[in-house]
Design brief:
Blueprint (H helix, E strand, L loop, with lengths): L5 H9 L9 E4 L3 E6 L2 E6 L3 E2 L2 E2 L3 H15 L7 E9 L5 E3 L4 E10 L7 H6 L7 H15 L7 H20 L4 H27 L3 E3 L9 E4 L2 E4 L7 H4 E3 H14 L3 H14 L11 H19 L7 H19 L6 E6 L5 H8 L10 E4 H8 L15 H20 L4 E4 L5 H14 L3 E7 L2 H10 L9 H6 L11 E4 L4 H9 L7
Parallel strand pairs: 13-15, 13-16, 14-15, 16-17
Antiparallel strand pairs: 1-2, 2-3, 3-8, 4-5, 6-7, 6-8, 9-12, 10-11
Helix pairs in contact: 4-9, 5-6, 5-10, 8-9, 8-10, 10-11, 12-18, 13-14, 14-15
Length: about 500
C-alpha cells in the first residue's frame, strides 16, 4: 500500500475544512495555495521542470525565501514571511510548531482575488485613472530595479521565438502557415532591432524586473494597483529590458479588449519614466508579440492538465495567438496635430483619439504643457511662473515637440502633437516635418467661444496646464493667421468633438 509523502500530508493538513473552515485551494503547475481567513499559504510543489527545481525541501525553502525577497518591494503588505510546516513526534502537523519542518510556505496577507486586473478587465471595470496609477507603479519599480551586468537575455530571444513556434506546431491547434509566418516576422523584427536592443542594454535598461506582469499578477488594493507574484525561480527570465516588462500588461490589456487602458498606460509610462524611454518604442511590437505568443503557449499547455472547460482554454490560447499575429504586422504611422486656444479641449481630444489609432496600443501623445514642465524640471501639476512662457521658452518647447514627434514617427508609431499652435510658423514647422518624413498629417484646430473656454479652464484640477481665465481672455487677441488646418467646432461635448475629428481622418481607425 502506497504511503503519503510529507507534501501530501501537508496538503491534507492545510486543506482540512475541520481545522480551517471555508479553506480554498488553488493549484498551478508549480505551487498550491491555501486560502483561509485573512491569510494565504503558498507551497512550492515538489517538482522539477525545465525552468525550475523544487524537488527537495532545501530547494523549496530557498525558493520561498527568494519569493519574499523579490516580491516584498512590490507588495510589502502582501508578502509577510516564510512559515514552516512542522511534524511532531506523534505525527501531528502544525504551522511553526515544536516539531521538525517538513515543508515551507510563503505566508501572505489574503486579498480579494476578484480585484485582480484580469477579472476587472474582463468585466470592463477598470477605473478611469487606474492605467496611470499602474504606469506609475511599474515605472517606480523599474527605477530601482538592479541593472544587469550582462545582456544575455538578448541572445535568448531567438530561442524563445523558436520555442513557441515549435510548441504551436506540435499542438496542431493552429494553421501551420500562420505559425511559420509569425516565426518569420518575429525573427526579422529581432534582426532589425538587435542593434537597438544592444544599445539599450549598454544604457542600463536591462534590469532585474518583475518578469511576469500579466493582469492576473496585479491586484487593486485600496484603489491602487499592486504588483505581486514576480518571478523568483530564475534570474535569467526576469532580467530583461524594462520595456519587455511593460509589454506584458500592455499586451494583456489589448487581449482583454481594453485599448483605452492600454494606450493610457503607454503614454503615462513614457511621460513619467525616470529615464527617457522613447528611444525604445520600436521594440514594443516585437515585445508584445512575444508576450502574447508565450501566453498562448501557456494556455495550450494547460489543455493537458485542465479538468475543466478545455474548449474555453483553447479559445483563450487561440485569441492570444491571433493577437500575436496582429501585433507583429507593421503599420503605417501618421501624425495628428491638435491646436486651439486654451480651453478648447485639445488634450481631451488627443487622449480620446490616441487609442483608436494604429499601431497598437495606439498613438503617443506629446503635450506641450507636459513637455514645458519637464524642460523646467518640475512636476506636471506644479505651476510655472510667467517667465517660463516667454517667446524664447515657447520656441524651445515647440522645437522639442517637433524633435520628439520625429523620434516617435521614425520608430513606426503614430504621434499626436497637442499644443496651442497659435502662430503660423509653429504650424508650418509641423507641416514641414510631415512632408520631410513623408508621413500623413491631419491638422486640427479646435475652436470655441470665450465663455466656454473660460468655464473649462476654471473647472480644471490636477492638470499640467497653467492657463487661467485671464490667459484665455488674452488669447482672444492672438493673430492666428491663415489656417491650412481644419477648424473643428469644439463647443459641444468631448464625444461630439471626437466624432467630428474622427470624420476628418484619412481612414477610419
Amino acid at each position: 500500500m502506497a504511503t503519503l509523502s510529507d507534501q501530501d500530508l501537508v496538503f491534507s493538513f492545510l486543506g482540512d475544512p475541520t481545522r480551517r473552515p471555508n479553506v480554498r485551494r488553488i493549484d498551478t503547475h508549480a505551487a498550491s495555495v491555501f486560502l483561509f481567513g485573512d491569510r494565504a499559504l503558498k507551497i512550492k510543489r515538489a517538482v522539477r521542470l525545465p525552468f525550475l527545481d523544487y524537488s527537495t525541501l532545501a530547494l523549496r525553502k530557498a525558493a520561498c525565501t527568494k519569493e519574499i525577497e523579490i516580491n516584498r518591494p512590490f507588495a510589502p503588505d502582501i508578502y509577510l514571511r516564510v512559515a514552516a510546516i512542522t511534524k511532531a513526534p506523534d505525527g501531528s502537523l502544525d504551522i511553526d510548531g515544536p516539531g521538525s519542518p517538513i515543508e515551507y510556505a510563503v505566508e501572505m496577507r489574503r486579498f480579494d482575488d476578484s480585484q485582480t486586473l484580469d477579472h476587472l478587465a474582463a468585466r470592463g471595470h477598470l477605473s478611469a485613472g487606474l492605467p496611470e496609477l499602474l504606469a506609475d507603479s511599474i515605472s517606480a519599480s523599474h527605477a530601482v530595479a538592479p541593472r544587469a551586468s550582462t545582456s544575455a537575455w538578448i541572445e535568448s530571444i531567438p530561442a524563445w521565438i523558436d520555442a513557441f513556434a515549435a510548441s504551436f506546431r506540435g499542438s496542431q491547434r493552429f494553421v501551420e502557415e500562420d505559425v511559420n509566418e509569425l516565426r518569420t516576422l518575429c525573427h526579422a523584427a529581432f534582426s532589425q532591432l538587435r542593434p537597438r536592443l544592444e544599445q539599450r542594454a549598454r544604457d542600463g535598461y536591462v534590469r532585474r524586473c518583475h518578469g511576469d506582469l500579466h493582469l492576473a499578477n496585479i491586484v487593486v488594493i485600496q484603489d491602487k494597483p499592486v504588483l505581486f507574484d514576480a518571478i523568483e525561480f530564475d534570474e535569467r527570465i526576469a532580467t530583461i529590458d524594462v520595456l519587455y516588462d511593460l509589454a506584458f500588461p500592455l499586451m494583456d490589456l489589448l487581449h482583454f479588449e481594453q485599448p483605452f487602458a492600454a494606450n493610457h498606460l503607454l503614454n503615462r509610462y513614457f511621460s513619467t519614466a525616470v529615464n527617457d524611454q522613447t528611444g525604445g518604442l520600436a521594440t514594443l511590437p516585437l515585445f508584445m508579440t512575444i508576450r502574447a505568443a508565450i501566453r498562448a503557449q501557456v494556455f495550450l499547455a494547460r489543455l493537458d492538465r485542465d479538468d475543466g472547460d478545455r474548449s474555453a482554454t483553447l479559445e483563450i490560447a487561440e485569441s492570444y495567438f491571433q493577437l500575436a499575429r496582429r501585433l507583429i504586422r507593421p503599420a503605417t504611422p501618421m501624425m495628428i496635430a491638435v491646436g486651439g486656444l486654451s480651453g478648447t479641449g485639445k488634450s481631451a481630444l488627443a487622449r480620446a483619439l490616441a487609442p483608436l489609432l494604429g499601431p497598437p496600443p495606439g498613438a503617443v501623445v506629446l503635450r506641450s504643457d507636459v513637455l514645458r514642465k519637464h524642460l523646467f524640471g518640475v512636476q506636471e501639476t506644479e505651476r510655472l511662473p510667467a517667465a517660463a512662457y516667454t517667446p524664447d521658452s515657447s520656441l524651445q518647447v515647440y522645437q522639442e515637440l517637433a524633435k520628439q514627434a520625429e523620434r516617435v514617427l521614425a520608430q513606426g508609431f503614430t504621434v499626436i502633437v497637442d499644443a496651442v499652435f497659435s502662430r503660423d510658423d509653429e504650424r508650418a514647422a509641423i507641416d514641414d516635418l510631415a512632408k520631410r518624413l513623408k508621413i500623413p498629417l491631419v491638422g486640427l484646430f479646435l475652436v470655441a467661444d470665450l465663455r466656454i473656454r473660460q468655464a473649462r479652464v476654471r473647472d480644471r484640477s490636477n492638470d499640467a496646464s497653467d492657463a487661467t481665465e485671464s490667459v484665455a481672455l488674452r488669447q482672444e487677441d492672438y493673430e492666428i493667421g491663415p489656417l491650412t488646418w481644419t477648424q473643428v467646432d469644439a463647443s459641444g461635448t468631448p464625444e461630439t468633438t471626437l466624432a467630428r475629428s474622427l470624420s476628418l481622418l484619412p481612414t477610419s481607425p
